[in-house]
């Protein structure tokens, strides 16, 4: 994408370089915690302090439905294992839970609400099926919900699991997520990479990585075997850093510096990490990372950070040098992809993932603003240039997707498979008691439009900690 | 065929190249030089066509249109395709003998001593599932096509063009065999024109250093070869003084560059030899003598629509696929077994225009050392999942099998530089896995190749879905 200059007169790349000074900076989302007191010698150094673990309690209302409860418990256990939290069955003396899930298997809402009341201020999701659901089929009753309490009318496995996922994500969003803005140029990363390169098992892992990406893509263009081996070593280094430090997600603050450190770019490693459920944000975009983590926690799907621009046919193009390929879910097959050299630098290796045309998607600008649409095309390269993974999508209900002030694509926005608007409404109601902002034709105030001002959302690099746009916290 | 501005440019450049070849030969002949006594001037294939004068709906046409409209439609399709593929059409029955092939929509046609295609249209009114007993479907170089699609006329014309081109083509055979004379292939009619290897040596020596350097540098850049003109290890330098990989040693870099220039000169020498001898394809005998020298020549010539190989049969198959499909084939060595029903087709060179001469972009490739770091080769990346057809000419029979690309092995750990892992169907009439000089081409081409084989009097195996009468 073009290097548009922001209001400060600096390009995105310049911002990235400038932000490199804060070698181990942390984000300011409220969900980022400092990882260490001071920079360790190696990023593979595990944290000295014990990491707080989430524990969620599940209460089944209706003693006669034991078989149903057992079946649902199995699904909830699987989710807890995947996301790494504990399920509390309500044993005496257990630590206070971070959230409470009440499922009324007998359909008695009063009993369910009474159980919820026992939890006090603990965030609670209450699920109670009704004999006859609403015509719209909506599960979540936002009218009956408020901050800390979400009411739903269902006991379907998908909804019960989503309720649990929401409680976990809500706990994470309250300052319990561990994120880190990594810099390839930092001595601590280079030391970690040195350790990885000296490890024979890591070399074998990198070769297995290279072998996988040699066989999986539809085609490999220009990239070489050595690029894949280097990419494999970057992947092993990043994954080990995330596992050792129990990071929920990382931002790659100076992506292209990895050319100097490892001889290739981190686009394919980022793709692999995203496909494995390890959120990895390009260019250290911590607001993009927030969306990646949310879709990971809530839906078990990776999301795509891209730079965008409107087209003449009232669609938007979103493009970036990496994209997850397991867009339908981590346990689903990859969407077809090609590997080619990185666009702007003409070397290295980057994926071009072919999104499914017609697929409904949700577009985010940070976690608190979203719109829905569907994929129109994958931008062809050549004849078009630009970042390798490039999708064109519509935004429902917007007569002009390029109107100023939306914040879309300035520089980043995020996309995920599926229309998850209702689920996000429910989640933010649980967390903050209000709905997220929507991309709709509700124009900004005339004065603001005349000035070309924002619609209350930051545009472009602005954060003092990481130089990226964040939704202001608190 | 997908095309864009650049590919149209390539198509035009191929026409220019053909003209230059002809003009160059003419110029050399005028100068009295020995350019081969049997050299024939290049001419477009002349195809005789017969579209009956259907006058009303119930004439011969079974389609939904009236006779005169149908006639106009067929003629329009034929004219359009003829202009596209460079064929001249003739409708004068008295000049039929001068033509290189015939196509008639009024089956059965009279016997003719040339490749002939009869097209029977099956519409909703008539079905020719059982042809009349009097029709001789087994006569040589004859194809009866039964279709309900007027667009198939394009295929018929293309088949006749390919058969004609095969017959009129001259293959330059560089050999040290003493007293060798021009010979013609018994079925295909292709002329093999022997040329002493000294002629090729002379042409290589005369090739321009400047042009060869430009060709070499272009291939090195496109192929991201270690040791590009900057002398760097394949990864360019960032602005400033920082380097993340050391530059190559000057001695090693110079050696690499000189080897590439030598390969480019060989390429240019081959090209000039073909022009001088008025040939449309090249066969180099004595593979051991050349080693990896033709690495660029075989790839570059194939990308320009000129078949080139170390073996006559491989050259013929490359010509067939090139003339018929306008795309380059991959001549390779014996297949190496890899797991269940998977083989590796590998060779030191491979064309890049695998999807079609006019298809943009061509296949990606990398240039680098071959196995054990020796020599160097072109590593072309094939598309995963693409259907392929593998061909072999054996005892005047055309063997073929279809399959699919699994992936391109880019590790260069075994075999030659280009290594494509394929799976092939196992059925009678498939090429021998251990046979050298077989050809792989993109696409399931069984039907078209069987049709062409029928028109060229080559035996071919039965294949599912192929209804060409034998």
* Widest β-sheet, arrangement of strands of chain B: 11-19-16-17-18-13-12
Secondary-structure content class of chain A: alpha/beta
Distance between the termini of chain A: 33 Å
How many angstroms does the end-to-end distance of chain B come to? 30 Å
Sheet bearing the most strands of chain B, described? 7 strands, antiparallel
User: Overall 3D geometry of chain A?
Assistant: globular
SSE order of chain B, one letter for each helix or strand: HEHEEEEHEEEHHHEHHEHEEEEEEEEEH
Largest interface: A-B, 24 and 27 residues
Tell me the β content of chain A.
Answer: 15-25%
Low-confidence stretches of chain A: 1-34, 444-454, 457-474
Q: What's the multimeric state?
A: heterodimer
Mean pLDDT of chain A comes to 84
Strand order of the largest sheet of chain A: 9-10-15-14-13-16
> Helical proportion of chain B?
25-40%
Tell me about this structure.
The complex is a heterodimer of chains A (474) and B (470). Helix content of chain A is 32%, strand content 17%. Chain A is built from 12 helices and 17 strands. In chain A, a hairpin with a 5-residue loop joins strand 9 and strand 10. In chain A, helix 6 crosses helix 7. The two termini of chain A are 33 Å apart. Chain B is an alpha/beta fold and 470 residues long. Helix content of chain B is 32%, strand content 20%. In chain B, strands 11-19-16-17-18-13-12 form a 7-stranded antiparallel sheet, covered by helices on one side. Chain B has a 5-stranded parallel sheet with strand order 2-1-3-4-5. The chains are: A alpha/beta (474), B alpha/beta (470). The interface between A and B is medium-sized, with 24 and 27 residues.
Give a concise summary.
Chain A is of the alpha/beta class and 474 residues long. Chain A contains twelve helices and 17 strands. Chain A has helices at residues 12-19, 66-83, 109-118, 157-176, 187-197, 200-215, 225-245, 258-262, 267-275, 286-299, 421-432, 446-451; strands at residues 55-61, 86-88, 99-104, 124-127, 149-152, 179-182, 249-252, 280-281, 304-310, 316-320, 337-340, 350-353, 360-364, 369-378, 389-393, 412-417, 437-438.
């Amino acid at each position: 994408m073009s290097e548009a200059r922001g209001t400060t007169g600096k390009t995105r790349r310049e911002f990235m370089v400038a932000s490199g000074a804060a070698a181990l900076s942390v984000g300011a989302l409220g969900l980022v915690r400092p990882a260490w007191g001071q920079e360790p010698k190696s990023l593979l150094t595990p944290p000295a302090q014990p990491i707080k673990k989430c524990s969620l309690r599940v209460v089944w209302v209706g003693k006669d439905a034991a078989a149903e409860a057992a079946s649902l418990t199995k699904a909830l256990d699987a989710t807890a294992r995947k996301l790494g939290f504990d399920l509390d069955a309500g044993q005496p003396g257990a630590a206070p839970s971070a959230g409470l899930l009440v499922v009324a298997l007998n359909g008695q809402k009063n009993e369910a609400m009474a159980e919820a009341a026992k939890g006090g201020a603990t965030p609670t999701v209450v699920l109670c099926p009704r004999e006859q659901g609403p015509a719209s089929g909506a599960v979540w009753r936002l009218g009956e919900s408020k901050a800390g309490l979400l009411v739903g009318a269902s006991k379907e496995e998908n909804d019960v699991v989503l309720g649990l996922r929401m409680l976990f994500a809500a706990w994470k969003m309250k300052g319990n997520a561990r994120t880190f803005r990594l810099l390839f140029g930092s001595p601590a990363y280079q030391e970690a990479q040195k350790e990885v390169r000296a490890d024979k098992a890591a070399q074998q892992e990198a070769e297995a990585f290279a072998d996988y990406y040699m066989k999986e893509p539809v085609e490999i263009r220009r990239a070489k075997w050595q690029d894949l081996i280097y990419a494999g070593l970057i992947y092993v280094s990043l994954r080990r850093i995330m596992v050792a430090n129990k990071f929920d997600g990382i931002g790659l603050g100076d992506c292209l510096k990895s050319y100097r450190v490892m001889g290739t770019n981190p686009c394919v490693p980022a793709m692999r990490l995203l496909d494995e459920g390890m959120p990895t944000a390009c260019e250290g975009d911590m607001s993009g990372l927030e969306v990646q983590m949310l879709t990971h926690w809530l839906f078990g799907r990776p999301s795509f950070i891209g730079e965008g621009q409107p087209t003449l046919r009232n669609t938007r193009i979103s493009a970036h040098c990496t994209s997850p390929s397991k867009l339908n879910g981590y346990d689903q097959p990859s969407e077809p992809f090609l590997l080619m050299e990185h666009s702007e630098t003409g070397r290295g290796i980057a994926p071009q993932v072919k999104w499914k045309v017609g697929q409904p998607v949700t577009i985010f600008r940070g976690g608190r603003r979203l719109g829905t649409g569907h994929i129109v095309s994958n931008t062809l390269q050549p004849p078009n240039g630009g970042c390798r993974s490039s999708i064109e999508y519509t935004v429902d209900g917007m007569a002009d997707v390029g109107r100023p002030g939306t914040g879309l694509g300035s520089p980043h926005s995020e996309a995920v498979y599926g229309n998850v608007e209702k689920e996000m409404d429910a989640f933010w109601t649980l967390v903050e008691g209000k709905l997220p902002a929507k991309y709709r034709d509700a124009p900004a105030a005339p004065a603001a439009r005349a000035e070309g001002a924002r619609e209350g959302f930051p545009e472009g690099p602005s954060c003092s900690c990481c130089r990226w746009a964040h939704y202001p916290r608190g | 065929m997908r095309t864009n501005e650049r590919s149209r440019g390539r198509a035009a450049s191929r026409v220019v190249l053909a003209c230059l070849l002809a003009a160059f030969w003419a110029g050399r002949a005028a100068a009295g030089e020995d350019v081969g006594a049997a050299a024939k001037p290049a001419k477009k294939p002349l195809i005789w066509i017969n579209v009956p004068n259907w006058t009303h709906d119930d004439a011969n046409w079974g389609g939904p249109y009236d006779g005169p409209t149908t006639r106009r439609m067929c003629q329009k399709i034929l004219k359009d395709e003829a202009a596209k593929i460079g064929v001249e059409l003739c409708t004068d029955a008295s000049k039929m003998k001068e033509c290189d092939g015939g196509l008639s929509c009024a089956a059965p046609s009279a016997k003719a001593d040339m490749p002939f295609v009869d097209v029977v249209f099956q519409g909703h009114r008539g079905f020719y599932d059982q042809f009349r007993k009097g029709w001789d479907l087994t006569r040589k170089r004859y194809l009866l096509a039964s279709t309900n699609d007027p667009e198939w006329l394009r295929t018929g014309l293309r088949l006749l063009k390919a058969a004609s081109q095969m017959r009129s083509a001259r293959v330059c055979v560089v050999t040290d065999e003493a007293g060798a004379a021009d010979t013609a292939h018994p079925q295909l009619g292709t002329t093999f024109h022997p040329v002493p290897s000294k002629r090729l040596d002379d042409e290589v020596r005369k090739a321009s250093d400047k042009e060869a350097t430009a060709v070499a540098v272009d291939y090195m850049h496109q192929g991201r070869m270690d040791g590009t003109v900057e002398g760097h290890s394949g990864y360019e330098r960032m602005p400033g003084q920082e380097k993340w990989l050391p530059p190559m040693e000057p001695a090693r870099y110079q050696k690499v560059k000189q080897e590439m220039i030598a390969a480019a000169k060989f390429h240019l020498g081959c090209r000039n030899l073909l022009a001088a001898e008025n040939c449309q394809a090249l066969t180099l005998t004595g593979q051991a003598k050349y080693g990896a020298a033709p690495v660029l020549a075989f790839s570059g010539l194939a990308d320009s629509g000129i078949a080139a190989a170390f073996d006559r049969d491989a050259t013929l198959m490359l010509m067939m696929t090139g003339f018929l499909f306008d795309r380059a084939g991959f001549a390779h060595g014996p297949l190496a077994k890899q797991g269940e029903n998977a083989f590796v087709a590998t060779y030191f060179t491979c064309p890049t225009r695998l999807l079609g001469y006019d298809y943009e972009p061509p296949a990606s490739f990398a240039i680098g050392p071959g196995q054990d770091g020796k020599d160097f080769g072109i590593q072309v990346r094939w598309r995963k999942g693409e259907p392929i057809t593998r061909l072999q000419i054996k005892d005047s029979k055309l063997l073929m099998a279809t399959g699919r690309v699994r992936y391109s092995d880019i590790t260069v750990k075994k075999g030659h530089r280009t290594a494509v892992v394929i799976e092939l169907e196992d059925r009678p009439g498939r090429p021998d896995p251990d046979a050298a000089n077989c050809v792989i081409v993109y696409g399931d081409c069984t039907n078209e190749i069987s049709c062409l084989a029928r028109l060229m009097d080559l035996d071919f195996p039965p294949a599912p879905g192929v209804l060409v009468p034998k």
